[in-house]
Hints:
By secondary structure, the protein is an all-alpha fold. 53% of the residues lie in helices and 0% in strands. It contains eight helices and no strands. It has helices at 17-33, 36-57, 63-66, 96-116, 119-147, 163-167, 169-172, 183-197. Helix 2 crosses helix 4 (96-116). Mean pLDDT is 87; it is low at 209-222.
Amino acid sequence: LSIVTTDYRPVGPxxxxxxxxxxxxxxxxxxxxxxxxxxxxxxxxxRKACQFLEKIRQQRLxxxxxxxxxxxxxxxxxxxxxxxxxxxxxxxWHHYWDDFWAIRAWRDLExxxxxxxxxxxxxxxREQGDALLEATMQSIRCTMRYFGIDYVPNGxxxxxxxxxxxxxxxxxxxxxxxxxxSELMRRSFDVYWQKWIAPTGxxxxxxxxxxxxxxxxxxxxx
Length: 222
């Protein structure tokens, strides 16, 4: 969950990007400090976050999704819906940034396990991260075909909101799981720029999937 109390009771909504962000932050501390004893201390929390991600992903690994037709088929193998875009749409939507952050979590668990010499977890993390990356890319291709688009959208239910621009970014940084020079990434970020940044002269216009007119915007001259 995205928000917990100081005694770890969940009080916030479901936001599946939180686990990946938490794992990344913990492992990043170790990258800066090289404090192996500290990494060993927080490793159980890192591992538990990834176990949670593995568990919730099972919800989309069933035959109900494997054998469905698009767009439902496009949800197979990725993380379930969340309210990660509560400012843009309903909590029934899937969001690819949840998956990209989860992949980052698996990569960081693999790195941490290797640093601590926990070889069983190295193998487990690599397999889980690779599997989620493959499922996410299959979902993206499925969604692109379904919508008839040539860029990475926000998720299987949403091809129009500006969340696609912020949502794909974690795949490049800090995720570093997709090639920024690939044709798909270049095309996607060209679309994001054209849709959400260029019309405002460089500002990021963040809104949902409704139609917006830019004629009312007055840009400063200095």
